[in-house]
Amino acid sequence: TIRFSRNRSLETKFYQVIVIKILCDICFSDKDYENAIKYYSEAVDLNPSNAIYYSNRSLAYLRTECYGYALADATKALEIDKNYIKGYYRRATSNMALGKFKAALKDYETVVRVRPNDKDAKMKYQECNKIVKQKAFERAIASDEIKKSVVDSLDIENMTIEDDYVGPKLEDGTITLTFMKEMMDWFKDQKKLHRKCAYQILVQVKDVLSKLPSLVEITLKETEKITICGDTHGQYYDLLNIFKLNGLPSETNPYLFNGDFVDRGSFSLEVILTLFGFKLLYPENFHLLRGNHETDNMNQMYGFEGEVKAKYTAQMFQLFSEVFQWLPLAQCMNNKVLVMHGGLFSEDGVTLDDLRKIERNRQPPDSGRLIFQMQHESKSGVSCQFGPDVTERFLEQNKLDFIVRSHEVKAEGYEVTHSGKCITVFSAPNYCDQMGNKGAYIHLRGSDLKPEFHQFTAVPHPNVKPMAYANTLMQLGMM
Ligand SMILES: *[C@@H]1O[C@H](CO)[C@@H](O)[C@H](O)[C@H]1NC(C)=O
Ligand SMILES: *[C@@H]1O[C@H](CO)[C@@H](O)[C@H](O)[C@H]1NC(C)=O
Ligand SMILES: [Mn+2]
């Protein structure tokens, strides 16, 4: 750790700035964005009127997916220097990631105006414009007709499975362990499940999920243990590795997957169909919660929609979207441990009863604030960090011991903060093939409810890069 003196002459300030620049460059080349953020914060402190520091810290925040902070920094950079082009790009990228497409479009517009000959800027502007128009169109038709379920327009019974299909099939319409094993092997060889089987799984899992409460409450007996996993993000081969290390799900080997199953990784369909299959096979012992990536906005940008369209159809994506809206939002174990994807809330006084009452069959933006926060953010549009005071008050009020959340990549795969009362778990090792992080899962036993951490590293996967199906803006953007 390098400490910078607070008592600075102009000369030491000058050298410190040079040292910081070198340190930040090293951090960036090491992908150590957390330290880069620390050093840029020092730099901002030394020289609060330099747009580059804010802009570069904004990029570091983008890389760690703290989009709210990234947005604030890009905005600050532009306040200092409204001609700083990179600032517009970064603010646009932050807004895109937060689903604020119109705001993003405005910034691309500015770049195009200032640099009429910049082809890259023009392309991004056009791409973003397309999304804004598409959203407007979707809104227009959504208000015209009462939402009909895709399920009503499917005739699954009559879908035929061609003779040359030799892959796994449900047995009399039911999922069996044999089917699950065959399907996982089939996926491992990069083969496609027959669309009829995929639809069967989706229709059945929609029915199962829609009967669950928004807050799932379970009791672990003295002798029981559950495994809690964080984000998996389409890293199918790493999911298989979790099952290899920790055993296949079963009635005696229960799991809870804490959201963000899809997007970014290019094997999201394989991940989600495997998880849905196990949910159907062991509805009481296999649990899934919704993450911020089980939403239309995210799926459009980060690959899942593109992947489903590439491997199946737009109609199947519609059905996924319907199913995602029925995923529960939080799970409580033995009235003591609360698990949810994003973390706690910006307002104080939220109770478990408030969570029970959330009507969840909807997309986050028009759904009241609670549901969105649980998946995504806490204070003021910022996507990470709520203070220990928030955790403390929440736990006390609800008579809980600690919370488990996911959503943020951690170098060790997990992180224990707030004196052990807020635990983060993340299960996508070497996230996006580039973060170099470990993955982790947690064992929680009924006997003592003490979290026990298990780490693992990434395994190889076939040569399809992450984000292969993502929106081109996201592929080309600095994310
Ligand atoms: C800001 O980031 C750029 C790369 O985008 C880098 O070349 C430059 O050195 C950084 N500036 C400072 C002051 O850290
Ligand atoms: C299957 O198709 C046939 C002929 O089109 C139709 O008569 C029958 O009702 C369909 N079955 C179902 C279950 O929809
Ligand atoms: Mn997330």
UniProtKB/TrEMBL annotation:
Enzyme Commission numbers on file: 3.1.3.16
Pfam families associated with the record: Metallophos, PPP5, TPR_11, TPR_8
Task: Say which species the protein is native to.
Answer: Sparus aurata (Gilthead sea bream)
Any one cellular-component term (Gene Ontology):
cytoplasm
- Localization, UniProt: Cell membrane; Cytoplasm; Nucleus
Ranked from the top, the taxonomy reads: Eukaryota, Metazoa, Chordata, Craniata, Vertebrata
Cofactor(s) in the UniProt record: Mg(2+); Mn(2+)
Q: Which residues form the active site?
A: 293 (proton donor/acceptor)
Report the principal subcellular site.
membrane
Protein name per the record: Serine/threonine-protein phosphatase
